[in-house]
Each structure stands twice: as C-alpha cells, then as structure tokens.
Amino acid sequence: MDHQLKVNLAVLAMMAALFVAGTALYQVVWRGQLRPALRTHVLNRLRVGWVRIHSQLTARVVGPAHSVLPGLVTGLPPHRNLVDPCVSRWAKGFLRETPVRLGFLALLTVAVWREADIRAAWNRQGPAPGNLDPVESLINGCVDATKWIIFVLPTKVPETPVQLWESPTEAVGLLRTPIVALLLCYAAFLLLPAALALVGLNPLIPRRDQRRLAAESEQRNWPVVLLTLCAVHCGRTHAQLRERGPLELPHVSTKRAERVIRQAWKTRHERVRRHQRRELKIHAARVVAVLRKAEARQHQDPDEALRTMATLLATMAHRYAEGRTGQLLDERQMEGVEPVADRSWLRLVISGVLIVGVLLALSRSGLPEIATGPFVSLLILGVFALVYRGRLPGPADLVDIVRGADRR
C-alpha cells in the first residue's frame, strides 16, 4: 500500500513538474521570444503585403475611373459615393477567396489524374449489388471521398508530376468519378447553412455579422467593378476616337454588362418577394434595351454613343452601389423603350440538346473508354462557350483589372 502511494505521489509530482516546466516554457520561450518574433517577421510582413496587394487591386479600378470618367460622364453625384468602398470590398473578397479556389483547382487536377486509384478504392469498399440503398450509397460515397482526400491524396501528390511526365496518356482516366465526388462534397458545403438553420445552429453567427459578410462578398460587389470597367472602356475608346479617328475605332460591346444588369436584383438583395420580382425583371430588361440602343448608335454617331454608354454604365454602377436595383436608370432615360426578353433558358435548352446529341453519337462511335471522360469535358465547355459566347465570365475580366481596364 505504501509502495503504491509512493508511486502515485511520484506520478503527481512528475505531472506538476511538467506543468510548471511547460508553463515556464510557454511564458519565456513562446510569449517572450517566438511569438514577438513571429509577429514581427512573419505576420506583420504578411499583413503589409496583403494591404499593398489590396490597395493595388483597388487602384486598378478606382484610378482609371477617377481619371477618365469625370470629363466624359455627366449627371453623377459631385461627391465621392459608395463605388470606391464597393470596389475595395470586392478586392478584399477576391483576395480572400482566391487561395480557396486555387486549392480546389489543384485538388480537382490531382483527383483527375489519380482517378484510377479512386475507382479501385471505391470498388474494394463498395457494398454488395443486392444491398444497395441510394441514400446510404450517397452518404458512404461522400464519406469515402472525404477520407480519400484527407488520408490518401497527400501521399499521392508527389507521384502525380512524375507519372504525368513519364506516361501522361496512362494517367488519364474517366472523369466521372472524381467530378461526381467533388460535386457531392460541394453540394454538402452549399447545404450546410440550411442544415444549421434546421437544427437551430444558425443563430451562432450573429445577424449583424451575417449581413457584414454578405456585404463584403466578392459576388455582391462584382457588378460595381464590371460596370465601372465597362464605363472606363467607353471613356478610353472615346479618347482614341479623338486621337486616331473613327476608322481605327474598335467596337465596344456591352454583353458582359447585360448579364450583370439582369442579375443585379438577385445579387444585391438576399430575399425579394415574389410580387416584386416581376417589376425588377421588367426594369432590368428595359435597362438592357436602353444600353443596346446606345451601343447600336456607334455606327451612326460614335462620339455621342460612347458618351451615352459611359454615362449609362457609370450611373448604373452608382445606383447599384446605393442599393437602387429598381432604379438603375431614370424613367426619362428609358422613355419609348420596350423590354428585351431574356433568352437564357433557351440557350440552356439548346446546350442540353447539343450535349445529349453528341453523347449519343459518341456512344456509337467506338471511342476508347479512356478517352471518353476528357472528350466529354471538352465537349461541355465547347458547347457552353459556343452557345453563350461572351456572356460567360472569363479570364478577360481579371485581365482588365490587372491591366487597369486597358482592354475593356
């Protein structure tokens, strides 16, 4: 008994000594030396770099707007309004979400090249054909994909560049499995807020913080950036008209701005009551009609057309920043204009018909199975690019910002 008591006392004394030593190390080493050094040499430099990049990205949009538009655009408020803060919030959201997008892209790339390993692992762990349950299979698939991403993927990453360099054709497999797995994980991520609300955990995030995060999101502030860049492009094209003459004048298109205008009321407001949606849609269609009418006048009076387009686009950017999605333009600016119908549903139907038709033809062509996945992916991208043309957001949007809207 005495021996056991001595052992327990020795263990307690050892634990107390370890606790005291750990506390001393924490106070002296971590808080006294490592933490200040880490904050000075790493965190402060990262913070300064973040602020510098954020300021440069914001200046790429705000700078040209302040230098080009004031002498061309008329009818805007004389004071500096909410456009600059919206651009700043967009830049902050873009920089915050870019690492996540790059990580997701890298993950998707590695998963595509290691598709054979994913299929083999899923086939080994799959249930018996007679005991399949759709819901259970869906849940198990998400769990297996998550386990593979966490435990197996890090061990496969170093081998992927070597395999890609030595035998790129053998590394290409069917893309269905990794894409479906990633889409399921992405769908679960999208459904997470709804699940939290159902179980009563949504109030864990204060409503004020929810509104702040929504207001600072990249998607909500992107229309201001795009409309401002389009207005700057019109202003710079107008300057080229004076310098080079009308024969060398490039045609200014507003296709990208039209898509933003039609979706402005959805992007700006979280919830819109059903009886208000029709009015907002009609207003957006009339605004698009006014913009198209001004664009068509480039072949009649380029000088006046470019001035009008720059004024319209800058006005819409300011109105959107002020939350006035139901009054992007004044009524006097839309007199005698009929709404332009939105044919996006028709383009979606045409895309689906083309994809299904080509897939049916592909199934009868005898193409090797290993080439089916990459071909289908390229086919889907090609069909959407063909049908939607300039209406899909592309890399040119970011190129315009990096180059200070030189190409818009």
Give a short synopsis of this structure.
The chain is mainly alpha-helical. The chain has 16 helices and no strands.
How would you describe what is shown here?
This protein is mostly helical. Among the domains are: 114-212, no CATH class; 344-398, no CATH class. The chain contains 16 helices and no strands. The protein has helices at 2-68, 83-113, 115-125, 134-156, 159-166, 168-171, 176-198, 207-215, 218-244, 255-262, 264-268, 274-296, 302-321, 344-363, 369-388, 395-402. The chain is extended and about 105 Å long. Mean pLDDT is 72; it is low at 169-177 and 390-408.
Throw out a few tags for this protein.
mainly alpha, 408 residues, 0% strand, single chain, disordered C terminus
Order of helices and strands: HHHHHHHHHHHHHHHH
Quickly count the helices: 16
Let me know the average pLDDT. Answer: 72
- How many angstroms separate the termini? 87 Å
Amount of beta strand: under 5%
Radius of gyration: 29 Å
Query: Which structural class fits the helix and strand makeup?
Result: mainly alpha
> Which shape, going by the Cα principal axes?
extended
Major beta-sheet overview: none
Give the fraction of residues assigned to helices: over 70%
Based on DSSP secondary structure assignment, what is the total number of beta strands?
A: 0
Low-confidence stretches: 169-177, 390-408
